[in-house]
Specification:
By secondary structure, this protein is an alpha/beta fold. The protein folds into two domains: 2-132, no CATH class; 139-376, Rossmann fold (3-Layer(aba) Sandwich), CATH 3.40.50. Helices cover 42% and strands 12% of the residues. It has helices at 2-21, 112-132, 144-152, 176-192, 226-243, 258-271, 283-290, 292-299, 304-307, 313-322, 332-338, 353-376; strands at 29-30, 52-53, 59-65, 68-73, 88-92, 95-99, 157-162, 195-197, 247-252, 278-281. The strands form four sheets. The protein has a four-stranded parallel sheet with strand order 8-7-9-10, sandwiched between helices. Helix 6 (258-271) links the parallel strand 9 (247-252) and strand 10 (278-281). Helix 4 (176-192) crosses helix 12 (353-376) and helix 7 runs parallel beside helix 8. The longest helix has 24 residues, at 353-376. The radius of gyration is 27 Å and the shape is globular. It starts with a helix and ends with a helix. The relative contact order is 0.09.
Length: 379
């Protein structure tokens, strides 16, 4: 992908661009004089050209030859074109303005010149997009060179999701936290941009092993000592710093280790105080499931007994919305009858993907807002 982007960019600059600029174009009158700081280079096309006007009423195109604004008579594209944002054409005088990322806008006219211009923009924008965007937000799906390229391209935030492997009654899979943490972290990363997601940590404290307590009383649950758990998080975060990530975000899908996550982040920030790299405890992720989501379920008429605290409607519906295969609908009634003895602290029978989507929306929206604020804060 990077090689293709390099070829496309250099072919554009060395072959196509000289053909385009061979056309003689009269100078334009600009409200802002184009300079090396205000006008974009075609190889990057990161900023829109300053607003200019052509002296001749029949001249539509505004272009930059070097750093000089120029015009060309019809038939040509109308208005400055950049490679930023999704393609949208807006009226600007008699012509249009294009703002695009990854592809140029539809040209307002045809002809050999505009055809070459179209090809130029397609190659430059396409090459820039291919070079900057990683193939996936998930670290484990990328190669090492792809991660290096992503970091150099500005993807310097990484989310370290924590899940857990525990019993969830007779109706829900042991790995629900792992699946939810991965899917939700992926959506958060996509919304933020320039963010990758580390593999989910599935081994968390779940109670004493011998004699068994808490969820360890049920087969399939995996528990590790809190010290070992915190040590793994600490080492992983320090590794990400070593590779060049600037913001390491730790979040957890379960409530039983939130205090431990916060303690790990506090220690990391103490040690990194002079480095400019920061760790973030994303408490908004879990808090959204305990506040906004619960309130939304109550607004739908559900009771506290139905919503529950573990494997009830809230827990089950959230899993249904993200990965339906985690839940066995035919066993919801059995889970309700068995109650706490069977591992369900709540009544899962009212659960549905629609109810769970209320939680998904709350988690993603509040996490993205909190993380944007944290990452943008002064270091």
């Amino acid at each position: 992908m990077a090689h293709m982007a390099w070829v496309a960019t250099h072919y554009t600059v060395l072959v196509i661009f000289p053909q385009i600029m061979a056309n003689q174009m009269p100078a334009a009158q600009c409200g802002i004089r184009p300079t090396a700081h205000s006008a974009p280079r075609l190889s990057s096309a990161l900023r829109a050209p300053p607003l200019c006007r052509c002296a001749e009423p029949t001249a539509d195109l505004i272009w930059h030859r070097g750093w000089r604004a120029v015009c060309q008579s019809r038939p040509l594209p109308r208005g400055p074109i950049s490679c930023r944002g999704e393609v949208k054409e807006e009226p600007i005088g008699r012509g249009t303005r294009a703002a695009a990322t990854g592809r140029p806008s539809r040209l307002a006219s045809s002809g050999p010149w505009s055809l070459r211009l179209s090809l130029l923009l397609a190659l430059v924008c396409g090459a820039a997009t291919a070079a900057a965007a990683p193939a996936s937000v998930f670290l484990e799906e990328l190669t090492s060179p792809e991660v290096t390229a992503a970091i150099r391209g500005g993807s310097t935030t990484i989310i370290l999701p924590v899940g857990g492997t525990e019993q969830n009654g007779p109706h829900m899979a042991l790995g629900k936290h792992n699946v939810r943490a991965r899917v939700l972290s992926g959506r958060i990363a996509q919304s933020l941009g320039h963010t990758l997601v580390a593999p989910v940590l599935p081994y968390v404290p779940e109670g004493n092993i011998t004699p068994p307590t808490e969820h360890m009383r049920f087969a399939g649950t995996i528990s590790v000592p809190e010290a070992a758990f915190k040590s793994i998080l600490d080492a992983a975060a320090r590794g990400f710093k070593q590779h060049g990530f600037r913001d390491v975000v730790i979040l957890g899908d379960s409530g039983n280790y939130q205090v431990a996550l916060k303690a790990v982040v506090t220690r990391l920030n103490h040690d990194w105080a002079a480095s400019g790299v920061r760790a973030h405890y994303l408490g908004a992720y879990y808090n959204a499931t305990q506040t906004t989501y619960i309130a939304a379920l109550k607004a739908q008429g559900l009771t506290d007994a139905q919503i529950g605290t573990h494997a009830g409607t809230a827990d089950t519906a959230l899993s249904m919305a993200l990965e339906p295969s985690l839940v066995k609908p035919g066993l919801l009634a059995e889970a309700a009858r068995a109650g706490r003895a069977g591992g369900a602290y709540g009544d899962p029978r009212p659960a549905s993907p629609g109810l769970g989507q209320l939680g998904v929306d709350a988690v993603v929206q509040q996490s993205v807002a909190a993380l944007r604020q944290a990452v943008s804060a002064t270091r």
